């Protein structure tokens, strides 16, 4: 029975990841966005705590709380990064991106 349960969990996780999408763009500070007219002035830095991605078509997609944490950790490895290019994998939930993985380029 335990092997069947493990298999069921593995299949469920694989199915969840199958629905994930990928976005590429520039990492921006989500708390800055409502106060600035141009997202270009809202580049994310190591001090940023709330993140969003600005896609090539100008769309801004905010991250969920877990995504903010994952992004902060990933950005910590890039001390001079300011508005770096990123690729984010995740799923949309109520206009917020639930981040599964983030790659800083």
The global form is globular
Please mark out the parts with pLDDT under 50 across 5 or more consecutive residues, or reply none: none
Decide which structural class fits the backbone.
alpha+beta
The strand order across the widest sheet is 1-2-3-5-4
Write up this protein:
This protein has 105 residues and is an alpha+beta fold. It has a single domain (21-104), classed as OB fold (Dihydrolipoamide Acetyltransferase, E2P), CATH 2.40.50. Helices cover 27% and strands 34% of the residues. It has helices at residues 2-18, 65-75, and strands at residues 21-29, 51-55, 60-63, 85-93, 96-104. It has a five-stranded mixed β-barrel with strand order 1-2-3-5-4. Strand 4 and strand 5 form a beta hairpin.
Give the SSE map.
Elements: H1 2-18, E1 21-29, E2 51-55, E3 60-63, H2 65-75, E4 85-93, E5 96-104
Parallel strand pairs: 3-5
Antiparallel strand pairs: 1-2, 1-4, 2-3, 4-5
Task: Considering the chains and any ligands shown, give keywords for the structure.
2 helices, 34% strand, OB fold (Dihydrolipoamide Acetyltransferase, E2P), 105 residues, 5-stranded mixed β-barrel, 27% helix, 5 strands
Summary?
The chain is an alpha+beta fold and 105 residues long. The chain has helices at residues 2-18, 65-75, and strands at 21-29, 51-55, 60-63, 85-93, 96-104.
